[in-house]
Write a structure and sequence with these properties.
Layout: H1 3-17, H2 21-30, H3 35-52, H4 55-91, H5 104-133, H6 137-158, H7 168-187, H8 195-200, H9 206-219, H10 224-237, H11 242-255, H12 260-272, H13 276-289, H14 294-310, H15 314-327, H16 334-347, H17 351-361, H18 370-385, H19 390-403, H20 407-415, H21 422-438, H22 442-453, H23 466-480, H24 484-494, H25 503-517
């Protein structure tokens, strides 16, 4: 790999992150014998296949992965004996051409070996992700384990390398990004996917994972933007450190102003923070710059529909959501978007159209996907009743206001709702407790959580989520009050529930709380 070749690949990487996909691919194609270029070229296709889920795109992605893996594997096999032989010979000599104790030739051979090993790890992980989406869990598990072993072995060599080692920035960014992603993500695997932990063979480590991801960013190599993206995502959605996440996003978008991945992430971040206007701006810009990936543009369109949904703008939301459902080739979030559309139609008094939307989404529900299973349960309730009851409509409005962080407005809506059944009472009190919890009125929140929990025996199976989510909410309050033993008792009880709405998200919150009480 000469300097010009690396400069061209770095140029392509900047084009890629600025959503100039076609131009980036043209450059990658020139250097497919370079492992970095091969990995990035395959990645473009894997992302496209993940978005579209069409047979043609999946076949193309599999083919690219195979080519990149072949190059990476050959590089490993060719360079390993060379660098090992040279290092062995150098040990017998007293002098060296390098401060590290090895000659330039042995260092370059070792560097190429590491790049081959790391790219093989990356592409094997991409293959595992595709296997996972195809629900070939056995193959996914085997590939994840293989990827982890490659990253782990590479890192053992990387930690002792000096910064002036050949291709160090690229080697370090890949190694630290790989192991860091594994360490963090394995730590938050939901119960339905515990097999991932078994396949990889170890428990996660969030603290170590974040440190490794930061080292990947600081390395300033080809995987640094990906590591930075991951850190921003985790700071916002897991740690809820919005100030840090926003500052990092600003820096990322200053470097890559047309990055649809960054703009998409920003839209989701600001929505979670309750800044729907800023979220709209991000998604609108993302829609503008995503012309080279139509399916991605459709997902951005659906997010704009989601924002309209949260603003209770039923008509605009229905147009955006139905447009996505009409044109998408992907199953991703299809059931949830179908449910959103059904709610919009019901809120506009179009019950027959709402029934069609709710009926249509049932076959789209995928097992073990929170958004899908929630949508399926709610659609079945709607179809059973043939409409949304007045209580359900007000509860849905309050839920959307809560998600938009309009907690005071949500409380006002809930206070006007008269529960008809104990089931209604449990759902309403749990949501109201969430609102009071969010505005810091912890005593009111505790009282309402306890009231919601007391309705356990009266709850329908669709609404049993009220109990574990209330238990986790109580635990979080007791953690804030420094009462870890009481918090632990509620978390233990929450662990006993399964098969409820938003289980994976609740379990993630439970694990986060458990880490605090155990510290």
């Amino acid at each position: 790999m000469d300097a010009h070749e690396l400069q061209e690949i770095e140029k392509a990487l900047n084009l890629y992150w600025n959503m100039e996909i076609n131009e980036a691919e043209t450059i990658y194609l020139k250097y497919l014998n370079n492992p970095i270029s091969g990995s990035l070229w395959a990645e473009v296709s894997v992302i496209k296949a993940g978005l579209t889920e069409t047979k043609e795109d999946i076949k193309e992605a599999r083919g690219r992965l195979e080519k990149a893996q072949n190059v990476a594997r050959k590089l490993q096999l060719d360079q390993k004996p060379i660098y090992q032989k040279l290092e062995k010979e150098e040990k017998k000599k007293s002098g060296s051409a390098s401060p590290s104790g090895h000659s330039a030739d042995s260092e370059k051979a070792k560097a190429l070996y590491l790049l081959g090993k790391l790219v093989f790890a990356e592409t094997t992980m991409m293959e595992a992700i595709m296997d996972f989406k195809a629900r070939d869990y056995v193959k996914a598990g085997l590939n994840m384990r293989s990827s982890w072993k490659q990253f782990q072995q590479a890192l053992e060599l990387v930690v002792g390398l000096p910064p002036n080692f050949p291709y160090y920035s690229h080697i370090a960014s890949s190694a630290y990004c790989g192991v860091g992603t594994f360490h963090f993500m394995i730590s938050i695997v939901p119960p339905a996917f515990k097999w991932i932990i078994e396949a990889v063979g170890f428990e996660g480590d969030r603290t170590r994972g974040m440190q490794e991801l930061q080292l990947a960013v600081e390395a300033a190599g080809y995987r640094s933007p990906q590591a930075n993206f991951t850190i921003i995502l985790l700071q916002n959605f897991f740690f809820e450190d919005f100030a840090t996440a926003n500052a990092l996003l600003d820096k990322m978008l200053a470097q890559f102003p047309k990055s649809v991945l960054g703009l998409y992430l920003g839209g989701c971040m600001f929505r979670k923070q309750g800044n729907i206007g800023r979220s709209d701006e991000m998604f609108t810009a993302g829609f503008k710059y995503s012309e080279q990936m139509y399916q991605l543009q459709l997902f951005v369109q659906s997010e704009l529909g989601y924002n309209s949904f949260l603003k209770l703008e039923w008509e605009p939301a229905s147009v955006q959501l139905s447009g996505f459902l009409r044109d998408t080739s992907s199953q991703g979030f299809k059931a949830f978007i179908g449910w959103q559309l059904g709610v919009c139609l019901a809120m506009m008094g179009k019950d027959d159209e709402a029934k069609n939307a709710m009926s249509q989404l049932i076959p789209w529900v995928r097992k073990d996907y929170d958004y899908d299973e929630f949508s399926g349960r709610r659609a079945k309730v709607f179809l059973k009743n043939g409409k949304m009851t007045p209580v359900e409509k007000q509860f849905t409005i309050a839920s959307l206001l809560f998600e938009a962080t309009k907690f005071e407005e949500a409380i006002k809506v809930l206070e006007e709702v008269l529960p008809v059944t104990e089931d209604d009472k449990g759902c309403l009190n749990k949501l109201k407790a969430n609102c009071y919890h969010s505005i810091g009125k912890l005593d009111q929140a505790k009282e309402l959580y306890l009231s919601a929990i007391s309705t356990e025996k009266s709850l329908t199976k669709e609404n049993i989520y009220v109990v574990p989510q209330s238990l986790v909410g109580l635990a979080e309050i007791f953690i804030k009050e420094g009462k870890k033993d009481q918090a632990k008792a509620y978390l233990k009880r929450a662990k006993g529930f399964s098969g409820y709405d938003w289980e994976q998200i609740t379990v993630m919150k439970l694990k986060k709380a458990w880490q605090i009480v155990d510290s």
